[in-house]
């Protein structure tokens, strides 16, 4: 087998592969000899089929098998001889002319085909210890803890029917039927539905219109679905809900005491406060971690520049743009922000390049420092995912066991977080006190993260 480089342009390479007819014919002959005693052909005893006849019957199928082996060998030779890493599967261009293929199969011509590949760039990892990043942190305020406790108390309050008009925080039990232009729509109907006014359970404007109703009242509630509503067939449309009020109930005083704590499985109200503070703190830590990670990725992106495999960037862009088109089709004006398609594409192509660059860089850092994801970590991720689908855990488990690509999608973020942890240990991290609002505010260009 002869491998000749015919193109070297950036990260693109092309090679011409030539397999002499004699070598190919020898391989085919050896394979036919292997199957000679295993096949049954009418008119011939096992093992007595003439080689020429055997080749006429099985020559093409054996040629296909040998061709697959040859392509695998050629790809390995390209990688080993040139000491490169492939960015994706090689693109193979085989002879298309039937007469040319026939000559190759019959051993009358050499097999010649081309292989186009894109290789990964040489990545020189900078001094990770020189990276300086900020980690925003915020203190948990007592009023936030008290607000959460009040909400828990309200959610666990008892209600008693009352004769008067419904007020905010009262619970109304209603039947409702939603329609658009006089036609009922799927999912817009309910019976004996309990609704606490002011809870924000229904779309904006619905609950406010029920303030003042009494048991037995019927009322048409007119609302508009938000433009970014999850059901795209309803997004941005005006609807009318025919509501029948069956009961109005007022809440008893919701006390934050030991009784509430025990109802929630805690020993005392003090233990409940600790649990609430820990839960809020967990959210703060997660937000702080995400901000730190974003700062770290920004620093890595700014200090590492190298060529990117064009096809990887194109694939990443296609994936992002497909999602953007769906959002635009559903009225996502926030996505467009007054920009043309060309302007949006240029913006998202830059984001695609950033993602590919950081993905390659993190992979290189992980490989160079032997950072690995254990089977136990992947198993835990599968179990966590299965728990998101109550009653279907076994099906989810089997899906991941049978789909290596899906399993790799769970492994990738675990690997990324471990690499980030490694870099954080080396970098200079400075904590910066911020407010809660600053901690949870989205950066202007958060979509690039």
UniProtKB/TrEMBL annotation:
Coiled coil: none annotated. GO terms for molecular function: peptidyl-prolyl cis-trans isomerase activity; protein folding chaperone; ribosome binding. The lineage of its organism: Bacteria, Pseudomonadati, Pseudomonadota, Alphaproteobacteria, Hyphomicrobiales. The gene is tig. This is Trigger factor. The keyword Chaperone applies. PANTHER family: TRIGGER FACTOR CHAPERONE AND PEPTIDYL-PROLYL CIS/TRANS ISOMERASE, TRIGGER FACTOR-LIKE PROTEIN TIG, CHLOROPLASTIC. It is found in: Cytoplasm. Gene3D superfamilies: 3.10.50.40, Trigger factor ribosome-binding domain, Trigger factor, C-terminal domain. It comes from Terrihabitans soli.
């Amino acid at each position: 087998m002869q491998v000749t480089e015919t193109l070297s342009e950036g990260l693109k390479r092309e090679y011409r592969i030539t397999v002499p007819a004699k070598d190919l014919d020898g391989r085919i002959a050896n394979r036919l000899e292997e199957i000679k005693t295993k096949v049954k052909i009418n008119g011939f005893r096992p093992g007595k089929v003439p080689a020429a006849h055997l080749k006429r019957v099985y020559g093409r199928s054996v040629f296909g098998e040998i061709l697959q082996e040859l392509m695998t060998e050629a790809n390995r030779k390209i990688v080993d001889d040139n000491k490169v890493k492939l960015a994706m599967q090689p693109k193979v261009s085989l002879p298309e002319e039937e007469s040319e293929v026939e000559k190759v199969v019959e051993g009358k011509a050499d097999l010649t085909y081309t292989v186009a590949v894109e290789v990964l760039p040489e990545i020189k990892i900078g001094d990770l210890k020189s990276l300086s990043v900020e980690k925003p942190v915020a203190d948990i305020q007592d009023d936030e803890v008290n607000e959460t406790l009040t909400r828990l108390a309200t959610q666990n309050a008892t209600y008693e029917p009352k004769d008067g008009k419904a007020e905010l925080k009262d619970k109304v039990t209603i039947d409702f039927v939603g329609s658009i232009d006089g036609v009922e729509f799927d999912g817009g109907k309910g019976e004996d539905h309990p609704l606490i006014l002011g809870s924000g359970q229904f779309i904006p404007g619905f609950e406010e219109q029920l303030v003042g109703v009494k048991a037995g009242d019927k009322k048409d509630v007119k609302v508009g679905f938000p433009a970014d509503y999850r059901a795209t067939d309803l997004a941005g449309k005006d609807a009318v809900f025919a509501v029948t009020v069956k009961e109005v109930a007022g809440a008893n005083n919701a006390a934050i005491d030991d009784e509430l704590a025990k109802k929630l499985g805690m020993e005392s109200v003090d233990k409940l406060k600790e649990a609430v503070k820990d839960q809020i703190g967990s959210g703060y830590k997660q937000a702080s971690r995400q901000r730190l990670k974003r700062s770290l990725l920004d620093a890595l992106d700014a200090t590492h520049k190298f060529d990117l495999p064009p096809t990887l960037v194109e694939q990443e862009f296609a994936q992002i743009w497909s999602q953007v088109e769906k959002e635009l089709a559903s009225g996502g004006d926030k996505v467009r922000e007054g920009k043309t398609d060309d302007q949006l594409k240029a913006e998202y192509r830059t984001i695609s390049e950033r993602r590919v660059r950081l993905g390659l860089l993190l992979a290189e850092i992980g490989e160079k420092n032997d950072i690995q994801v254990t089977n136990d970590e992947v198993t835990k991720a599968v179990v966590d995912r299965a728990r998101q689908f109550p009653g279907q855990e076994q099906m989810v488990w089997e899906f991941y066991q049978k789909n290596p690509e899906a399993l790799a999608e769970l492994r990738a973020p675990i690997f990324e977080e471990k690499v980030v942890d490694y870099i954080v240990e080396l970098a200079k991290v400075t904590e910066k006190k911020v407010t809660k609002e600053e901690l949870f505010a989205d950066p202007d260009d958060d979509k690039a993260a």
